[in-house]
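Replying to the earlier thread about multi-chain prediction with a worked example.

Input:
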Amino acid sequence: MRHNASEFVSFVSRHFRLVQTMCRERVRFTRDDEIVSFLQRFDFDDRGALRVILRMRELGVLRDRVGHWSPPTFLIEFLDQLAEQHSLASPKVIRGWVESSRDLVNRLLRCVEQKEGSALLTMAATILDVIEEIADVLHNVVQTVEGNCERISQEVNEYRALEDKQQMRDRLLRLVRLQDEYLTPVIRILDVNEELHATTDEISRCCIRLELRLAGLSGEVVDGAARLQREVVWLRQITIGRAEEARRELAPLVEAAVRESKIASGVHKALEHVRQQNWKWLNLTSDMSINDDKDSMLFSNVGIEGFLKVATESADPTPPQLPSHPPRTIENPTTVSDLRQELAGERHVEDLLQWIIEREPDLGLGPAMSLFHALVSSSDEATASNERSSYVRENLSVQAQRWRWDNPSKTSKRKTISARRVAK
Amino acid sequence: MTHSEQAKAHYPPHMARAFRDLRTGRHLCVDDGETYQDIRRHEDQYVAILGAMGYRLTHHPQNFYYITGGNQLNSKGVKAITLFLLILFQHLEDNKFDSDDRSWHRDLANRPFKIAELPHFATSATRMLMRNLDITDENLRDKVLRLMSRLGILELLPGDMFVFRASVYRFVDLCVAYAERPSETTSNEPSEADSENSEGTWEDLANDSDLDDDEADQ
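Result:
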């Protein structure tokens, strides 16, 4: 059914409050009595309500969706934007106020920079006008910011009071848009590093100079300048404080909404890939690496000691190793007979023990003493003297009686030869 | 003091316990008491010591620690946990306007969940996704929840309930990353066929769990 655009707009214009409320509340009527009940809020009687309902359906102000009647989407969006434009001043408006206040400050500066005090006095009326204009602009800035923040707070409260999920979603999107398009730019304009702050600083300086230069000359201008300077301070406190307050109300909702929207988008994408068995897209090996080093791979002291004990006892003993150097020849030890045999060739030995020690350099003092004792015990040839000597071998030293050895065969043989000579 | 005693005196006092927990995949947060506090107080030392052993210690902005760099949990386990959380997050998002906060992710680690009221088997679509990983409502607790408890992602409570620990936000970050990833991007991971051998079995996962029923039900 073709709708008459002119009649459509006329109807909306005539019943603006009704249509605006239906769009703002995102109404969905499932039965006619719901629509009648809604219209009664706008003082329609039953007959009038039925007539309006019929007309709304004819013109397309209410459209038949699946299972309910509701305003068309284009009308909802149009009225939303209209409401924003007329209830919220855009940041451009505030920036415009700031620029006009800058122009006024420049005019004031030109006045203040008059070198002659008398010239300054003649411009008192102009200066007062400029001061008044600056004050008006500052007030406009304050009211605009306050108005915006008030509207945002109202939107937040309305959102919190909603019960319908679809309305909540729509209103949440609107709040996100409000923060991005209105609140954040306004806070930026009010920032200490931005233009408004610089402009108000300049106003303040001008006012101080005016007060100093015209003190005692023009009470009216001085009072005006002092009042303007106070308003500048108030302006900053009020606007910045109000804007921050609105941000504190709105930011948590918006941040949560934006983040959850992102999370939901990621979840949706991931589940789509999981449904298609495309786990590769999720890249879990890199993006969700979870350590899993098994604890049982560690040795405990008790365990390892037990193992080593068993391993050691079970091992075959190693065979003895042959020395790398061949063994040297074992020499027969010196006996008493050897000594006696050697002494048989000696006629006389003055110090028998010393003779043994010198003859056996490899023999220790103890073994040498043993041989000596064995020799003197079994030989008549050995006789003790009255002298004592000290015998040293390595780190041992012995004091002993000196024994002599006299070989009787050698001695008697000489005697025999001598006896023969005598006999001849 | 001997040389070894002097050396030991300079190590963080709870290092042995922290090391044992971290290398088995546990994510440590403030609920882990002195072990977590020890890492927080001696973070630089832990980073250096673990780094020398080939591990990388990560301090997440939600204030929990975990390491990477050693042997990884088998892919079946990671998939199970990820799928479990994806389905849960979707359910929470769809129903967030039922709560007063109208938000779910900020208090994710504070609210208790009833196992019987989980959405994973409420629809045929979600049942099928879970069944593809051999997870049913009968074995969900053993195969998924106990594993997540061991890893410090959630804590099982009496009365068939659980509560998430801070480490669940690691998976929230993963979802945010997925939102920013183009749908058609392919990863460097091996294909499904290649990864079958490395998936591990549910028996492996069951043996991994060191929770007794008694301990879990306390």
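Chain B touches chain A through 60 residues (CB under 8 Å).

Feel free to reuse this layout for your own posts.
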